[in-house]
Amino acid sequence: MEQQKDLSERKQDPGRFPWPLVFIALAGLGLSAVFILFSFSDQLSNTDEAVTSAGNLTGSITVSGDTSAFTTDPLPDPRTGSVTGDGRAAVGQPAPDFTLPTLEGDAVSLSDYRGRPVLMNFWATWCAPCRLEMPELVRAYNTHQAEGFVVLAVDLTDQDSIDDVRAFVEEFDMTFPVLLDETGAVYNELYRLLGLPMSVFVDREGRIERIYIGLMTADQIDTFVSEILE
Q: DSSP for 141-178?
């Protein structure tokens, strides 16, 4: 009887409850919560930095699917040599001729504009740098049209939608010829496209004066156009 009474008293004795263990467990949970909070904040900061970088369009873009990877970074020296080394389009050489349909259904050849300075701009509606650049191309065309300057906007139609192209042209009021490369033969075989946008400046004699890959500034466009207006 005395032994059972002693055990009963021990069970009822609050002083024997393991409070130190409880405090240690709570402290551990608190430290874990603080660690998780700081880790989550760091992840949010890294995400913000990535969004800022993408918004500034400083990196490269990649086309998903079976297409090639396109860069938006300019070439180190866009005026010297060819774009690919083994491509057919090269600075100082005659620009390869081609014929493509327009949005209106007509056929346009590069040789139709011999004697006029020509800017061939390869672009697509899904190309964000192309969207940023196009208003400046429209401005340059409107400014120098009276001097014979022409822009041939070659769309990568095999990777694009005609409806999207029409909407893009209307949005930016593109009154110069918009050509549809429906098979990719011109941009892929003749000019060996490596990036978007890509601009090929052709002088009045039909020679390539400059090849530029990447988003051009307004000042660059004015400078490059002045070279072929001479």
A: HHHHGGGT-EEEEEE-GGGS-HHHHHHHHHHHT--S-E
Cβ atoms < 10 Å from Cβ of 26? 10
Conformational region of residue 214, where left means phi above 0, alpha means psi within -120 to 50, and beta covers everything else: left
Q: Does the predicted TM-score (pTM) go above 0.70?
A: no
51 to each of 35, 116, 128, 130, how far by Cα in Å?
A: 25, 43, 15, 19
pLDDT at 25: 56
pLDDT of residue 90: 85
Strand partners, 99: 109
pLDDT in tens, 70-107: 343 444 444 433 344 444 688 899 999 999 999 999 99
Burial of 72 (0-12, 13-18, 19+ CB in 10 A): buried
- The domain spans of the chain are 2-53, 99-229
- 10's CB contacts (< 8 A; 6+ apart) are 16
Tally of residues, the chain: 230
Classify residue 179 by burial, with Cβ atoms within 10 Å: 0-12, 13-18, 19+. buried
Q: What distance in Å separates the CA atoms of residue 157 and residue 93, rounded to the nearest whole number?
A: 26
Confirm if 136 and 161 have CB atoms less than 8 A apart: no
Percent over 70 (pLDDT), the chain: 62
Give the CATH number of domain 99-229; options: 3.40.50.2000, 3.40.30.10, 3.40.50.11540, 3.40.50.11890. Answer: 3.40.30.10
Confidence at residue 89, expressed as pLDDT on a 0 to 100 scale: 81
